[in-house]
Inverse folding.
């Protein structure tokens, strides 16, 4: 298995632009999680899905952030418009049984200038 | 809400020696799951070890073992025979026993991490 695949690995964009981060979970994993990592706040859960349905989006910072999971093999996290404070590493993770832990992707480092 | 605290921002160890990373957590639950994740410079988050709170036996994975003290809400990670490849950020994480199907949440709550340096 190729693991959880995220793209792009790095993204640099200008303030105000739309940014889309992509994730392909491990086949058969029913849960998909989006986390954000910053020096100040550490790892924060943004949203998670179960069977493609959003379950908990309480960590989504504001209306500028949206996430979708149109099918079991693909999810996107969109920021529109982006701001410098959105600069962070965004991780996608998937799990068959969360009590056994997650498998993380390699993350997308987003820089908004 | 559950919280996870890692009180050591940085630690260092000599190659081949043993080091212990600390983690404490706050919860009112009696059953839950605890994890240690490793994040090397490559950025990939890698699951190191997992502990179920209802199991009294401490989990071990090769050179990695935990000291789980439920009453003290402590979950430390011991790395034996440290290797240069062990250099990384280490994160402690908590997951509630009450999962989604029981009206709870599947999310992991992470500590802020400990940066481990291994000196040759």
């Amino acid at each position: 298995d190729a693991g959880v695949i995220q793209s792009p690995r790095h993204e640099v964009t200008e303030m105000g632009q739309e940014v889309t981060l992509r994730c392909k979970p491990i086949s058969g994993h029913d849960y998909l999680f989006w986390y954000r990592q910053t020096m100040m706040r550490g790892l924060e859960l943004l949203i998670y899905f179960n069977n493609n349905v959003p379950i908990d989006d309480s960590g989504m910072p504001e209306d500028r952030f949206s996430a979708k999971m149109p099918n079991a093999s693909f999810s996107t996290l969109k920021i529109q418009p982006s701001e410098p404070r959105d600069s962070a590493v965004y991780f996608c993770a998937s799990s068959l049984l969360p009590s056994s832990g997650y498998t993380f992707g390699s993350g997308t480092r987003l820089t908004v200038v | 809400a559950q919280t996870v605290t890692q009180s050591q921002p940085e630690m260092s160890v000599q190659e081949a020696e043993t080091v212990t990373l600390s983690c404490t957590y706050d919860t009112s639950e009696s059953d839950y799951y605890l994890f240690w994740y490793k994040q090397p410079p490559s950025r990939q988050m890698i699951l190191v070890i997992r502990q179920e709170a209802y199991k009294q036996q401490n989990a071990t994975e090769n050179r990695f073992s935990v000291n789980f003290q439920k009453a003290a809400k402590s979950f430390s990670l011991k790395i034996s025979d440290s290797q240069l490849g062990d250099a990384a950020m280490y994160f402690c994480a908590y997951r509630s026993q009450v999962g989604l199907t029981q009206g709870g949440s599947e999310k992991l709550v992470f500590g802020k991490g400990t940066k481990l340096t291994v000196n040759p």
